[in-house]
Amino acid sequence: MGRVGKIARCSGEACAGLTDDFAHAEAPGAPTAWALPPRGAAWTGRMAKRGQCPRCAIAACTLALILAASSATPASAQQPLPRIWDVQLPSPVADLPEDEFVDPACGTNGGPPGLAIGTFERFERCRAEASGLREVWFRYDDEWEFIARAARDSDAVARNNAMVVLGQPVTLSLLIDRAGLVQGYRIFTDPRAEEEVRTHAYGVAIAFKARFGTDAWTCNDLAPAEGETAILGIFVKERCEKNADGQAVTVESRYYYKPGQALLDPNTGLATINQFESSARLQVVRIETLQNPNARRSSPGP
């Protein structure tokens, strides 16, 4: 049973105010829960009799979902939401759209989020990399996506599911200097994607490169490390670099078996599940930041 949107909680149960947005709690700071797809009248009646759904929620939940879903597409279409591509380098962390860039945490260079920091302005809680920059992971707010799912509008779901590139789930992070200026960003294909999706993840590198123009790239095919083997005769381990508009752009793609991975389990003879490397990675950093350590302590120029 899929969740379809956020809804307020009151007295420990899911409910919503009819005069307010169903995706926010009735009282500031109150917790929220996930609303399920509206059911038929018979189901609602049974749940009410069992005491599992308070009277306020029976009508409120259903009505709020319908009203919010009916208005989701026009609003999202008229007001494009900010994305990582829109961040100007350098930009103060105070200028980031924290209503749309949510759940900031210390980044792990493509791995799962680390320490949750609550706000981008607490970036110093994250460990500095060798460059002096701190990586802060975040995700886009998914409220409009879940509203679109409530309306069963597949086109609106596709438009509002921004955490994908060429159909591949991705993770995002910003690179912030000591002065609190965003100096770069990273995008990774998500290693948690389903096998049938992730197998094509390395191809996203083509889209990453196309965004910065198809010419003037310097690409190198890296040699396999010990134990790395081709997948059905295909081995991809490429690193491409380019300088564009004062930014150093790096795109990496990987497609191979890691040591110990194979198509078939050597012990059982059965096909393995999701045991392979297939990924793409984009990093964009201001060249001045990489060349001049003192630039990481300065304020934005005029």
Tell me the radius of gyration: 23 Å
* Helix-strand sequence: EEEHHEEEHHEEEHHEEEEH
Give the beta-strand count.
13
Q: What is the terminal-to-terminal distance?
A: 53 Å
SS summary, helix count: 7
Outline, from the CA principal axes?
A: globular
Count of distinct structural domains: 2
Low-confidence stretches: 1-70, 72-78, 296-302
Which structural class do you get from the secondary structure elements? alpha+beta
Report mean pLDDT, rounded to a whole number. 78
How big a fraction of the residues is strand?
Answer: 25-35%
**What is the percent of helical residues?**
10-25%
The biggest beta sheet reads: 10 strands, antiparallel
What can you tell me about this protein's structure?
The chain has 302 residues and is an alpha+beta fold. The protein folds into 2 domains: 5-78, no CATH class; 84-297, no CATH class. Helix content is 22%, strand content 26%. It is built from 7 helices and 13 strands. It has helices at residues 41-49, 55-78, 143-150, 154-160, 195-198, 204-211, 287-291; strands at 5-10, 13-14, 32-35, 91-92, 101-106, 134-140, 164-165, 168-176, 181-189, 218-221, 236-244, 247-256, 277-286. Strands 4, 5, 6, 7, 8, 9, 10, 11, 12 and 13 form a 10-stranded antiparallel beta sheet that branches. A 3-stranded antiparallel beta sheet has the order 2-1-3. Helix 2 (55-78) packs across helix 3 and helix 3 (143-150) packs antiparallel against helix 4 (154-160). The chain is globular. The chain starts with a strand and ends in an 11-residue tail after the last helix. Mean pLDDT is 78; it is low at 1-70, 72-78 and 296-302.
